[in-house]
Amino acid sequence: MNEIIFTLNGKTVSCPFEPTRRLLDVLRQDFNLIGVKEGCGEGECGACSILLDHNVVNSCILPLGNVHGKDIMTIEGFKTTKRFKVIEQAFIEMGAVQCGFCTPGMVMSTESLLHHNPHPTDQEIKIALSGNLCRCTGYNMIIDAVKKASIVGDGLW
Amino acid sequence: MSDISKSIPKLDAASKIAGEALYVSDISMPGMLYAKTVRSTIVKGKILSIEKPSLPEGYFIIDRQDIPSRNVVKIIFEDMPYFATDHIEHYGEPILLMVGPHLDMMDELIKKIKIEYAEATPLFDFKDSVVHYEYAKGDPKSVFERASQIIEMTYETGYQEQAYIEPQGMLAYPEVSGKMTFIGSIQCPYYVKNAVIHALGCSEDQVRVIQATVGGAFGGKEEFPSLMACQLAVAVQKAQKPIKLIYEREEDMEVTTKRHPSKISLKASVDEFGNVQGIIAQVSLDGGAYVGLSSVVLSRAMIAASGAYTFHHLSVQGDVYRTNNVPTGAFRGFGAPQMFFAIEMFMNHIAKATHQDPFAFRMRHLARQGDQTSTSGKFRDPIILEDLIQIATQKAKYHQKAKAFSLTDQYKGIGMSFFLHGCGFTGSGESTHIKATVRLHKLISDKVEIQVAAVDMGQGLKTTLPKLVAKILEIPIHQVIFESPDTDVVPDSGPTVASRTTMIVGGLLARAAKELKGVWQSGIDQVITKRYEQPSYIEWDEATMKGDAYPAYSWGVNIVEVEVDRLTMQVKVKNVVSAYDVGKAIDEQIIRGQADGGITQGIAYGYLEKMVSQKGRIRQKNMTDYLIPTSVDIPKMETILIDNPYPLGPYGAKGAGELTLVGGAPAVCLAIEMAIKRHITKIPATPEYLMELINHE
User: In B, which residues are within 8 Å of A45 by CB distance?
Assistant: First the structure.
């Protein structure tokens, strides 16, 4: 094998065979997907959250080799969807954005949660977002936004 | 006309949600190089030799030998070199920058650098006072002589890390004109500009500073970025290419400035009626290896010595101690969180020691309009603290719960803090040190551009300042432009710190907008400039710390309810209710967001966020070791805002950003005290500490 091939935001892409590279670096450097943020580099803060086969993962601790044949979605791919529009509107309306550095990751976690559980309880939302650190908001308004998205976007997930 | 407080969608939210907003790490330039910092691996000593590898083409090492002018970061107290001199004063002190096109190669080259040291004995105790301030009010000596009872306690607070989610970062590049431009994650564009001018010894027009989108700051990007900029300035001079310096999380947590650890000793003289007559306070701060702006942190801490109360007799002394710990610096609250923890716990402890109901005791001592402030200035404006307390206690069912929890052994508690925050720079800082200037530029298109150096770091300025201006001019908000500041365009309206921006910068903008409205001519280019003028009644004497320390005060009440696990001593925060007087909210939702985020940091400072320096090395170096609250740690929080317009603030607005943090630690600790029935004198109140308290009785 001399290439790693995966689906990125709906398109098939290939990368040179460097299986230990961090997916985060591949996304930011090779594909210029800068909506994927690096906050800690050790899988703790969630700013680099992306979807791997619809499950949220930290791309900073995901080796490129692990995504061969998989489906990867970043905020750049997700933002073209109807579901994104609903989440975006809810985040704006509920005041969920302050500095914004955690926000794309929060949005990806929200999408993953609603994909698996379209009508989450508050506690389920909290647990789903617990891998995404936010230092600005104290989380309340983000939780409200996810709740709002689940109501407004009823049927989309 | 609708109320200014009515919320509007934040103007910068959409680009952030879509991942399109550009933070400094997202910006690249053709031919750009990267920089990495090589740091001391000892705490104190002397550099004997540095062996550098031969460098491939395109790689550079930059150290103090490359500095064209002064090797000191221009902060308030100019003592911090940006590249270590021969002497190392703290672990992780920057010695040199490795610069080059490939980070992997740079890592290899860095491994080949050999630095030899002669180690010396470091100092960690509070022995070397480098700043000493004191002030007094009334006649503290005589009230202590006639005291019916004297109560003494000592309180200690630990480090707190800002833990902005975006690590520190700066990009610098040479322009064709010979000018050098900096793009950074910064709170204070002009601090960076002035630091670089000072370091390079160049003229003002040779340095330009632009703010990138800032991924959180909380004070951490107030003075620290100046150091990175000075280093990059020297590096760009040598390499003549764009250079980007982004910290990794561990580096950021290990070496950048944090909240000052403190030790605060308080002594109260209580009369026969159980009233506090006077307080003697001694505040000690760990400034770390370099003083930087610690003196200003100290003065804010000292001025907060009477909390939200009036004491007629006060004697307050304070010291910043130089140690060989990592330098400490600005963090939201700026000395006040330490003092409010101490004084709020102390008031409760005095009440208990004198067998009084703590609530009634504290209420009796509340500051009132017309009272003298701690520094013998005057609380001129109405104080509505009692209203805030009444509404917050009702919403939180404070009295019912306090009674139930106090009498039973269910490991539940409810705690309440009262606090204020002086808005703007301490003392005469605004008029002597900052001298803010703002500009409104109306273009031919009739769009109005806000030109100020104030930075949106998440607190909402990108929305609140245009909202203010648009409302006064009675034009749609989209007709107002507010770009991130660029020092080539905007005047120096001061740093984005000290809860000053809405009140001071927003106040000046409001005046400018009023003037513009009066002279508005459609289709004509018009410029209005406004400069800060201190209200004439404000008097402050720096030497004796007497007078009006702040032009205005915001006030607040926090009520926090906890449950403590009786086996593990883990604290679970169950409920939070807050009431604030921030004058007037320019946007209610934005203020609620500040309130939620501020108290989350404040509560976590009190019970969760533990950072220790062991022999000069920070032990918690990443988000795994240093716990900040996650979504599951925070309950639903309720915030009540009561208008109390300040005549000189725009629409009556005062400061809000820091206020919301300062009461968190005492509120949660008073709740924990009630739950475990022990005195807490130290934060963070970790399970280990609580267990010690339980076991040692």
Answer: 165, 249, 623
Looking at the whole model, is its pTM more than 0.90?
yes
Reported as a pLDDT band with limits 50, 70 and 90, residue B569 is very high
CB atoms within 10 A of CB B539: 12
CATH architecture assignment, domain B24-122+163-255: 2-Layer Sandwich (3.30)
Q: Does pLDDT of B227 surpass 80?
A: yes
Which pLDDT value is given to residue A2?
86
Here the CATH number for the domain that contains residue A136 is: 1.10.150.120
Residue A126 contacts B, CB cutoff 8 Å:
yes
**A47 and A91 share one domain:** no
Distance CA B319, CA B124 (A): 15
Residues 6+ apart with CB under 8 A from B177: none
**Of the candidates B623, B215, B334, B525, which has an alpha carbon nearest to the alpha carbon of residue A101?**
B215
Structure tokens at B615: 């022999």
Q: Which two tokens stand for residue B542?
A: 């720096």
Check B596 against A140: CB less than 8 A apart.
yes
**Dihedral of CA B511/B517/B519/B521: which sign?**
positive
| Total number of domains constituting chain A | 2
Beta-carbon contacts below 8 Å between A and B? 168
B429-531 CATH: 3.30.365.10
Q: Which two tokens stand for residue B1?
A: 């006309």
The residue count for chain A? 157
Residues forming beta bridges with residue B211, ordered by sequence position: B184
Compute the mean pLDDT over every residue in chain B, rounded to the nearest whole number. 97
Provide the domain limits for residue A39: 3-77
Whether A105 and A130 share a structural domain? yes
Q: Determine the distance in angstroms separating the CA of A123 from the nearest CA of chain B, rounded to an integer.
A: 8
Best A140, A141, A146 residue to mutate vs chain B (most B CBs within 10 Å): A140
Q: Residue B684: is the preceding peptide bond cis (ω within 30°)?
A: yes
Q: Is domain B133-141+258-426+546-695 in CATH 3.30.365.10, yes or no?
A: yes
The answer to whether A109 contacts chain B (CB < 8 Å) is: no
Residues of A in contact with B9 (CB under 8 A): 92-93
pLDDT tens digits, B279-314: 999 999 999 999 999 999 999 999 999 999 999 999
**Eight-state DSSP code of residue A61:** G
pLDDT 10s digits, B578-600: 999 999 999 999 999 999 999 99
Query: Mind listing the pLDDT tens digit for each residue in B399-432?
Result: 999 999 999 899 999 999 999 999 999 988 898 8
Burial B650-666 (b: 16+ CB within 10 A, else e): bbbbbbbbbbbbbbbbb
* pLDDT surpasses 80 at A49: yes
* A chain contacts of residue B590, beta-carbon cutoff 8 Å: 95
Least confident of A3-12, B224-233, B422-431, B525-534: B422-431
> Per-residue pLDDT for B66 more than 70?
yes
Q: What is the ipTM of this complex?
A: 0.99
- Inter-chain CB proximity B23 and A101 less than 8 Å: yes
Q: Based on the fold, state whether residues A93 and A140 are members of the same structural domain.
A: yes
Nearest CB neighbour to B17, from listed A36, A107, A140 = A107
Is residue A1 very low, low, confident or very high in pLDDT (cuts 50, 70, 90)?
low
